[in-house]
Amino acid sequence: MVEAMRCGLACVAPDIPTGIHWTLSQGGGWLYQARSPEAAAKALVEATRNRELLLHKRREALRLSAELFSPSLVEEQYLQLEASLLKLTFNGQVLNPATAAKFRLVQLSDYGARFGYALEKIAHNPGWIFSKLMGKR
């Protein structure tokens, strides 16, 4: 959605409690009631029938995306996050990121391996996930 807004496109999206709500409630598009095909259709019809409003929402989308998601702003936020990670402490001692990762119960690489295994099982046997969810081996 943000990429579309950065291109000057107004968005029509469901009003769900995520960044979608936060972003479009400030302008740049239409929010409609989630799980309501009628509300989605109404928003789409409004977007196509009211040219002036559409142009206004497109200008809003471009302005908001530049203000909220410009590459320089995202880079600044990333650098702040990186700096805060370098200040991690444990029992008063500064930890480097590699040491801090050792304090995880399950390392991220293990998550990736487990996820890859599950995807492979599902690809070969779509019913596999249901047997896992139902407690069958």
Helix content: 55-70%
Q: What's the gyration radius in Å?
A: 22 Å
Indicate the structural class: mainly alpha
Uncertain segments are 105-112
Name given to the CATH architecture of the domain at 2-69: 3-Layer(aba) Sandwich
Which CATH class of the domain at 2-69 applies here?
Alpha Beta
CATH topology group of the domain at 2-69: Rossmann fold
Strand content: 5-15%
What profile does the largest beta sheet have? 2 strands, parallel
Task: Note down, in words, how this protein is organized.
The structure is a single chain. The protein has a domain at 2-69: Rossmann fold. The chain contains 8 helices and 4 strands. 64% of the residues lie in helices and 10% in strands. The protein has helices spanning 2-6, 19-24, 37-49, 51-69, 71-85, 97-102, 108-124, 128-133, and strands at residues 11-15, 29-33, 89-90, 93-94. It is mainly α and 137 residues long. Helix 4 (51-69) runs parallel beside helix 5. The protein has a two-stranded parallel sheet. Strands 3-4 form a two-stranded antiparallel ribbon.
What are the salient characteristics of this protein?
137 residues; mainly alpha; Rossmann fold; two-stranded parallel sheet
Architecture blueprint of SSEs:
Elements (H helix, E strand, L loop, with lengths): L1 H5 L4 E5 L3 H6 L4 E5 L3 H13 L1 H19 L1 H15 L3 E2 L2 E2 L2 H6 L5 H17 L3 H6 L4
Parallel strand pairs: 1-2
Antiparallel strand pairs: 3-4
Helix pairs in contact: 4-5
